[in-house]
Structures are given as C-alpha cells and as structure tokens.
Write a structure and sequence with these properties.
The chain is α/β, with parallel strands linked by helices. The protein has 14 helices and 19 strands. Strands 2-1-3-4-5-6 form a six-stranded parallel sheet, sandwiched between helices. Strand 4, helix 4 and strand 5 form a beta-alpha-beta unit. The chain binds 5'-deoxyadenosine and iron/sulfur cluster (SF4).
Amino acid sequence: MNKTFYLETFGCQMNVVDSERIVSLLDGIGYSQVEDPKQATLILMNTCSIRDKAVRKAYGHLGRFKPLKEKNPSLIIGLGGCIAQQEGGESLFDTFPYLDLVFGTHNVHRLPELVQKVEQDRVRCEETEFLDMETRLRLFPSRTGDETVSRFVTVMQGCDNFCSYCVVPYVRGREISRPSQEILAEVEDLAAQGVREVTLIGQNVNSYGTQQSGEISFPELLTRVDAVEGIKRIRFTTSHPKDISPELVACFGTLPKLCKHLHLPVQSGSSSILQAMNRGYSREQYLKLVTQLRATCPDIRLTTDIIVGFPGETEEDFAATMSLLEQVRYAEIYSFLFSPRQGTGAAKLVDETPATVKSERFDRMLKLQDEITRQIWQADVGQTYPVLVEGESKVGEGQMFGRTTWNRIVNFSGSEDLVGQLVDVQITKAHRNSQLGELVK
Ligand code: 5AD
Ligand code: SF4
C-alpha cells in the first residue's frame, strides 16, 4: 500500500522548521505528503502550547481525526511538538485513546524509527526525552524541502530566560547555539540554490553564542551573513530587549542587507509588571533602546508582543502600556490575554482582575493600535520602495507579491521572471494587512 502522511503545523517558526524536517525524514522512509487527511495512512500534528487557546485548538483538530481512525484502524495518528513535551505520552494516550505516537521537541530525528515501530508492532510509542547538549549540537535542524525566495535558518534553540508567564524554557529546554560555520555554510548553500532572503531564527537570537566558548557574537554572525553573495536581505527573530547590545543596534546602521524592521517584544509598558514577568528591563530601559535604534536607523519600524491581564495588572499598569504604544508607535502589535501555563511562576500568582475587565482592556488596546497601524501604512501611499518579489499573489491573475523592508506584503502587476529580484514599487493603496502597488520601470 502507498504510504502517505498528512501533517498539520501550529505555532512559531521553530515548529515550521521542525515540520520541514519531518517532511524530509518521512520522505526518507517512503512516505509522500498529502493535503487531505482522508487520503493519509499517517497523520501527524506538530503542536504549540504557548497559550491555552493554542492547546485547545490542537485538541480540537485532533478530535476530527478520531472518526477516520474508527473507519480505518490501521491509520497511524501522532502528536509532536510542545504539547507532547509538556503533557507526555501517558496522559495524552489516556485522553486520546486513538493516538499511536507522541514525540517531543528534541525527538524529531527519531521519527522514522518510531513510525516504523508503530507500523510493524502496532504498539503505542512515546519519546519525549530532552537530549544532552552534545547530541543537540549534532542534530541542529537545517533547511530541507523546496527552495523559495525567503527561508528560515535556525541559529539557536531553547531559552534560559524563564519569563514568569512562559512555558518555552520547559518545552524547548536549555539555550544552545548552533556553530557559526554551519550556519554560514547553510546560508551560502541557500544562496546558491536561489534563496534571496534569510531569517535567522531562535527563541532569543540576541544571546547567540554567549554560552559556547569561542563562538562569535550575534552582531558578528549578522556581519558575516551580510557578506554572503547572492543573499539580498536578512531578518532575525525573536529578540529579547535585555540582550540587544550596542553592537547589534549599530548593525542597523552599517549592514546594507539587514532589513529595517525589528520585532521587539515589550510585553507590558509598566515597569512593575515587567518585573513580575521577570523580563530584566524597565519601561525606561526599553524606551531608551527604541531611541537608540531610531537614532541609528531613522526609518526602522518596530513590531511587538503585548500581554494584557497579567496577574496584578492594575488600570494604572494598563494605562502605562497604552501610553507606551502611543509613544513608540509600533507598525503592528501581536496582543494576547494572559494565559496561565502549568509549571510557570505566573500561574501561581493571585489574579483578581475579572475576565470582563481584561477583555475590555484588550479591546481598548486594539482600537488604539489599529489607528496607529493604519496611519503608518497609509503614509506609504505615493512612496516608492524596493520590494523583494516572492511569487504569484493570491489576489489574482497577473498579480505578483513581495515585501518591503518592513515585511509588509505588497501586491502589484508583474511577471513571474521578477521572482527573487528587488524591484521598485510605488505604493498606491494600503489595506489592513497588505499594500497595493505599481511596478516602477
Ligand atoms: N499568556 C499570554 N501570552 C503569552 N505569550 C507567551 N506566554 C504567554 C502566556 N502565558 C506571548 C508573549 C510572547 C508571545 C510569543 O506569546 O507575548 O512574546
Ligand atoms: Fe519565553 Fe521569555 Fe524565553 Fe521568550 S525570552 S521564549 S517569552 S521565556
């Protein structure tokens, strides 16, 4: 029988890269990917547990596969990623009796063996052990799959920061940096295959190299990636404000390929909440960093993450977040209601703010930010910017899409031979999540 798999991926870039590896590992044992779970002999979910909503969503999707298993008992269903790491096999097998396979965030490389074991022995399999540093260094995920114009390159994994609300250090393990020669070799290889933009990814890229003796710093790594021929643009994510060095700020003034966009999660505008979050910076320190970034690169645009309703957040704390949004004028924010995560410090804090108050604050914040966001992208109309063309647009025939340095999608009429090129596009209209433009000949 033809072996086919259906893969669903939730969560951040780390999971996207892990899923790319899953695809190539399964290809290695004769599985081909299908887009319809009904056609699959193996269904895998790569999950996220950052907030309760993500977990419920994953469980909801898993539930949809139950009838397929009832119809076809030989179907193999597996769950991996952060939920698997957090919950472990025993509890997941208990709750979802139709589940065959559970694999953690450090065990993706073992998937071929685990799948084959389930196939042959028809037993349930679990592997959720964290690996030692030595082994992890050897197993750093590198790119697999189809080349596109823009790709992620993993530079580090894990997190040692233990922000009090966050589950990541528990489900991804300790921080580890990938050897810089390996990263550079991968970027060179990607460039040779036609990739034009790389996004260096890790939970906290700014602390790259600090735990490995003799390793170069993140600004130095960026400088070397900038020198790779063929690469036209560099991005990186995610940055922890406390670990942004003056050298890294300087990169925004000196590295020609570094995009003028920085995602700089602030989480709250109130220093006392930041302290309770264990973020390691105050409102003032964060704002100083923003000032330095803008002094170095006047047209840099910032985006951020905000948590609303952290335990103990008063109206005054929330007002501080609102005033920070007005002061910084982010191009975009990603906002979340606080979600207590099992095992984290903040889950133990008393939380007396009623849910209705939290959601009212959340709505007020969205309203304020929507207007700021609208103004910022609207001001681009009439301007001409370089756009890196990525492919055919979803909006229609003859339309291509690419991105400006600020990572905004621009749709415009053009031909396919522009893919991979930096072209000048005049912005003619700003929508909520994208812009429209005309190619400047
Ligand atoms: N509750 C709400 N938001 C959270 N985030 C992380 N943990 C939680 C939590 N427990 C948000 C932070 C982080 C983003 C990826 O998710 O804002 O930057
Ligand atoms: Fe979570 Fe904080 Fe680490 Fe980011 S830096 S992954 S928020 S613990």
